[in-house]
């Protein structure tokens, strides 16, 4: 009886522990439920197709069938405001259902967009995806679900072909980005986790790079728990820029803690480290040799450089040949000269060396005895 009771108690405790460890677990980027611990509480986070990744450009395979991404209805603002939310992990903006994505294997409908950033004005990184090991200052994610196959995002996010996310790498420049200002200027209104604010609708395409035809694509996951491996990723090669002041505001305006919590923590460094690629292939929409685009000036410099190089090489070769020729004639002379010197053994060898030099036209060096002249 006692052992049965003990088992029942253990079972109840186990159930409570597992329900705690589910969706309710409060995760963070560092600390006791930091990113290295996520997989203990959210098993998908320990999967083999996780995101983000470091994209090795030299390993990406060009797929000529990849057409430019087509944002659908991104420029239509409608007459309803967008909702900006501090969810404790990021700032998230809801997107209207008429927005979608074309140029993918299925029709995708937009759900929300959010950002990831660092804490040091971009110097210590902040983006999730890295390219050839290079971090950007921040990263924008525009999340869509497969509305051709699934009724809503909560169902789709658990299916392997459920989501499509656009990844836009963000760097800093001199200029204020007016598109991002539509979001950044309202962060003061949602300082604490759980707060929301309606903001005027704006052209969401203004947040994307100009050229939507150059990107990397791979199968990956949500970059936050529960890390479902349901995302077809598109990471654009063209970066967008915001001013340092805008980045600073993003890095310092929000708290990850709710308003009622006395000790507030800045919402910073909300980016996950690159995950193992494992057996996945990253495809590129563009061929590898066009990765570097040269300006007219650079091409001129390269042509002039090549010509100068050729002339230089010709001059060097000319001098080497000249030197070799004259050296061989100098070598012959001393070898001839010592014959006149009285030396016991060497003197006997010298004439042979002399023959070797002179017999470039006569292959049978030593075998050939001096032929009598006709
Ligand atoms: C999503 O769709 C599923 C299946 O139709 C349904 O059970 C669920 O309640 C829906 N969820 C939401 C949030 O609408
Ligand atoms: C993603 O996975 C699907 C199979 O689930 C495959 O058909 C597709 O080619 C993969 N896409 C990429 C970019 O690897």
UniProtKB/TrEMBL annotation:
Ranges annotated as biased composition (Basic and acidic residues): 343-355
Pfam families: Carb_anhydrase
EC primary class: lyase
Gene Ontology, cellular component aspect: plasma membrane
Molecular function per GO: carbonate dehydratase activity; zinc ion binding
E.C. designation(s): 4.2.1.1
Family the entry assigns: Belongs to the alpha-carbonic anhydrase family.
Name of this protein: carbonic anhydrase
